[in-house]
Amino acid sequence: MGEKVLISGNEAIAEAAVQAGCRFFFGYPITPQNKIPEYMSKRLPQVGGCFVQAESEIAAIYMVFGAAGAGARVMTSSSSPGISLKMEGISYIAGAELPCVIVNVMRGGPGLGGILPSQSDYFQATKGGGHGDYRLLVLAPSTVQEAVDLIMDAFDLADKYRNPVMVLADGYIGQMMEPVEFKKSPPPELPPKNWAITGAKGRPRNLIKTLYLNPVELEKHNLKLQQKYLEMAKNEVRVENYMTEDAEIIIAAYGTTARITKTAIKILREKGINAGLVRPITLFPFPYSTFKEIAEKVDNILVVEMNMGQMLEDVKIGVCGRAEIHFYGRTGGMVPSYDEIAVQAEKIVKEEAI
Amino acid sequence: MSPFYEDVIIAGFGGQGILFIGKLLAYAVMKEGRNVTWIPSYGPEMRGGTANCTVVVSDEEIGSPVITNPRSLIIMNNPSLEAFEPRLKTGGLLVVNTSLVTLQPKRTDVNIVKVPANEIAIEVGNDKVANMVMLGAYIAKTKIVVKENILEALKKVLGKEKEELFELNKIAFEKGIEIGNM
Q: Fewer CB near the terminus (10 Å): N or C of chain B?
């Protein structure tokens, strides 16, 4: 085991990106993720990389487009309103099939909202946000260590699928400090970036584009994209089942909410209520089959989020009427406490018993 | 024996070095191989013009890094006492800086350690190390980490740039330990 360092989530995300080979970062400041660009501005020049604070989020995402098109490992980060501004560019990058990593350290919305933690960009991350039939691969860390591991994986996944990968963290993960180990794993075998625009001397020219005026061609392009998303769904689903074996009630949560839920489960079990947690780690592709299986075993599933019910819809698709689904959400920067979650779950179990 | 667990909220004014002593504690805990989380004043329960941080320490995987009812409090000003005293767990530990906290703690079901931290800090040379006195008293009471690891953390956090502040902080910390052990 390597040396552990005490580091904040934001800084850990930045360092993990550098260690994963990221050499380009383009961004525009916004709370609560400013430590990421700050760290990158210092760190990237040390490794021969390039940091640019762009004039806007929109400029930043198109710089990402350019660097990704040239085959570089590139990242941008922002928080909710800033991510909204990047959405046009994200659609273009997805359409052009370019690999990059986008970090969203979510804060409360809609609009400018507030600076406190939130999970209200789930829809935006997993169901589009930008225009067109595209998907991002979406990873949701629940600890600082997991944020590090997922950032490193995100670059590989982006290259593997030639697709933007979003790491969806909430404000707490960015602000919190935890001991972290930067694990060095051997680089996976990835396809060569023979599509990159690197100067066509001695080879046929490459073209990166999103414009297909011929509908036959554009449909073909879309079908190819869909095939890729199906591949992701087949290969990349990640989920943690925590104390689900003997559970009478399942709580579904991701990110910081899932961590808080683990404490709620401890409280519930001390009271004799066997609760378990299903924690999606990939939000796209979503672990539908896990929920299908779990719904065969329990009657009640409680979805907890820092929003008004977004992952809730994916849980419903997975469960497909096989179990009762309940929801508890706090929003606007309010965070559900373990006591609140335990009370909700207890109420459901007791009502069931009547 | 049940696995070790402790959580503490450290609260006071901005500029008192609240986050700083929280980080020293977190670093020392990490050195001793335990899991630890440190969260600064960020989040809905943290509002109200005070600086604070929450440190959770456990032998097991840490669930919630946000704590509703802490086992310990280190309190450096009046608003923090008002905000957090009601939330302290029964049987918990309240370390209060009596140099600045003029309100009287109301709880009778907790252990209260009164530390005239600023007076001691002035005695050893500088008002600004009152935070280290508080940390010393807390560690003497809880034995959560060994003294040496806090000092190592201090050395690391101060770095070469502020090396000259080490001795003063160390003396204040050791005075705090003495008070905690009384």
A: N
